[in-house]
Structure formats: structure tokens, C-alpha cells
Amino acid sequence: MKSIKFWFVAMSLALVAGSSVAAPADAPEQIVRSVSRDVLEIIRKNDKDSARVRDQVDARVAPLANYNRMTALAVGRHWRNATPEQQQALVREFRQMLVRTYLSALTIYKNARVDVKGSRGGNSSDELDVRTEVFLPGQKPIPLDFSFEKTSAGWKVYDIAVDGISFINNHRNQFNAIVQKEGIDGLIKNLSGRNAAARGNKVASKR
Question: For this UniProt entry, which residues form the secretion signal (predicted)?
């Protein structure tokens, strides 16, 4: 349950959730719901064209997530030692992995129920945590928190915590182990390989 897929299963469930509490159009809760409705519509209209779905979902989800900060936090202390080119490659591969897993989760877990519990201040005045609970059949509710930051481009997600476990921290441990053994280029190669393997599996499944 601590894999990347579960984090994005949980994220996708919260994205498709409704709330009885009205929120301003620019509030994090409403932003997430609006984007999710569009994503589900993209899937419905293009369910036979996975490449088109991926590209359109990426374009729609991009305004919601701060991929640069998410990648930097996940890579941790090694980020500052990476060259600008390596940082760009890490963000590109990390982003592909997140969108791919997010899309997969959305197509599987669309009927779960999520209760939005409200918001609370984050680590600074420009940060806000949105608290929810995910309800899956036969399981206890799963606490799920979204960490938003207010940037010049609006509110963006930079971390997710499932049952108190941070998405970023979970991947930082994994990435740190890879970098220590294989360096930054090894991490880039690892992420690229995962994405290529996923694309290959999709092509093979269509034959």
C-alpha cells in the first residue's frame, strides 16, 4: 500500500470526490474537483486512444501540480548537485511516471467515496493542507492530505500524505538509494526505464 500507485489511487479518488461544502472557485478544494471532472471527461471521450488521453490529461493536470518542487523534494539533497540538464531530465521522467500512474488509478477507482474534511494552514502563510478521508469497500477510511502552496501562478499541489505517510518522503528514500549506488544519471535511467517499460506493456496488451 506504500507504492507510487497507491498514492495516486488515493489522489485520484479525492479528485473525483464531491463535497457538500461550497468553496470559492480559486480554493484548492474547488480547483481539484474542477480538474478531475475535465480529466474524467477526457478519458470518457478518448478511451480507445491511450496516447491522446495521456497527452490531454497531462496538459490538464499540469496546472494543479508543482512538478519541479515535487521532483526536487523527492530527490532531496542530491537535487542541488544535479546539473540543470539533469534536473530537467528528472522532472520530465518523474512527471511522466506520475501522470501515467495517476491515469491508471483514475480508470480503476472511480466509484470510491471521499469526504472532504476541510483545510488547515501549512508550514507557512502560503501553504494549505486539504484534509479528506477515502472510503473503499471493505476497508477502514484512509486519511488523505493534500499539501498546496500558493504561487504566482495560483495554488499547486506539492505533496500528498496517505495515512500520515508523505508521498515525497516515500520516494526520497527510494531515490536516495538509487543515487548512492548509480548517481543522478542512474536515477534518470531508472525512471526512464520504468516509463519505457510501461509504454511497452501497453503496446503489447493491444496486440
Answer: 1-22
Cβ-proximal residues to 200 (8 Å cutoff; 6+ apart), any chain: none
- Residues contacting 56, CB < 8 A, separation 6+: 42, 46
**Grid coordinates belonging to 113:** 467515496
Q: Are 122 and 147 in contact (CB under 8 A)?
A: yes
Give 117-169 pLDDT, tens digit per residue.
777 877 788 998 887 777 767 778 878 788 899 988 888 888 888 788 888 88
CB atoms within 10 A of CB 84: 7
What's the predicted TM-score (pTM) here? 0.71
Burial class (CB in 10 A: 0-12, 13-18, 19+), 58: middle
Question: What are the pLDDT digits (tens) for 50-78?
Answer: 778 778 877 777 777 888 999 999 999 99
Residue ranges in 83-166 assigned as alpha helix (H): 84-108
159 vs 129: CA distance, rounded Å:
9
Angle at 6 between CA 89 and CA 172, to 5 degrees: 45
The domain limits of the chain are 4-205
Q: Structurally, what CATH architecture does the domain formed by 4-205 represent?
A: Roll (3.10)
Grid cell locating 178: 538509487
Beta-carbon contacts of residue 109 (< 8 Å; ≥ 6 apart): 9, 12, 13, 136
